[in-house]
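Model: You mentioned two targets. I'll fold them one after the other.
Researcher: Yes, keep them separate.
Model: Target one:
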Amino acid sequence: MNWKTIFNPFERFDDKLLLIIGLLGTALAILMGCWTGTFFSSIYKVNSLEKVTLQAVAIPTLISFSSAILILFILGKILNSKTRLIDIVNTVLISQLLLVILQATEKVAFIKEAQERLISHQKNLSETLPVGDLMVTIGMASFALIILIYSITLYYNGFKTATNIKKWQHIVLFAAVSLIMTLICQIVLSKYF
């Protein structure tokens, strides 16, 4: 295994295997959402729930993933008529897989406590800075940023592999469509969930 495999598993692994992993990852995201009280309001956006039920977690998560798949498949067909649905499904599902790790951090008590103490310090600046809490918060933010960058890299590489895009105009169009799709999905789902 080399760096290319890590950053673009879509070229190396069988599409059916990636689909199975992606579907298992989606099921894990839903189960993790039930445990942590979170759901995906769009790809790359995890929200908290007040009343946690399997339905309240599964429906918006599945809608957000499905809408991303549908929009990217349409864009893929426009850019390359040979784009296959399974490749787009794999792109979306595999890219979201690592975000389940970030969902799990909602239940790690010392991270939440460190963040809360840091926030309370902002209200009373006369106290000494809780350096340990600051380090935990910075470490968690750095970890989340690394996961997010890696996930976006998988998302881009998966779409690029599925559609064989090479022109910078197509890449810009992909980025714009992805951003708009994510924002619209968040707005629509936040009204209902």
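Model: Target two:
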Amino acid sequence: MQEIDTYYEFDRPPRTDATALPIHPPPLQRAIDEIGQWFRKWKIEVNSDKSAAIQFKYGKIRSRLIVDKNTPNLKILDANILWQRNYKYLGVTLDKNLHFRDHIERIRNAALVYKARLGAMLGRKSKLSRRNNRTIYKMCIRTVMTYASPVFAHAAAKALHRLQVVQNKFCRAATDAHWCVRNSILHRDLELPTIFKYMKDASKLFFDIAGSHPNALLRAAVDYQPPHPTHLIRRPRNVLFDPPDALTAAVESLNDVNDTHD
């Protein structure tokens, strides 16, 4: 019998003639290469140590893998771009699942540091007036917790509640109130909106400005149909349609009562 040579495709030696198919980089790498060419053209230096790649993937359960298997490595100007689970970009910590838990935890810790440094002025023994205490809090502590809030205001209520706890402690210390006084009463006396209310108003203002911006690309970025309320994926604009939390509803109820008496 005549022997027949059989081999699989991966055993076949590579083709060296002109008909061999070229190997193309992935589309993302091609886009990065084009950006690199633009950098070289305009003589812009890129710090590869500050460059990172994140694979955004929605999921309620955190995966131990940073990226999916067989994900190609990326390079910019012959320097490797490392895949990261989370990365700080323009002051906002982005995580691969866009839950913003890492960002909320970071700004909460930063707010606690500022609160501790200002403890002499914002504590129970402070001789400043409530108005001055509130002004210092809004300028030095709340701005840390609510910076770029339209980006993460749609995060889970449990995560955002950790920021509200910081404000609750400030209200109790600034008013020197007993532990049995409700947080809603403290917010009413200080005329201070809750974190949920403040972020919701800031998000509404942001989307209103972006929707009427002269730049067509910016208008298109915020012009989208919100998903169904039962949809699992939450988007930044969802915060505009969310009902108020229990504390915000209680504060608004007290404010309505005061307006009625006035």
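Researcher: Noted. Anything on target two?
Model: Confidence is low (pLDDT under 50) at residues 1-12.
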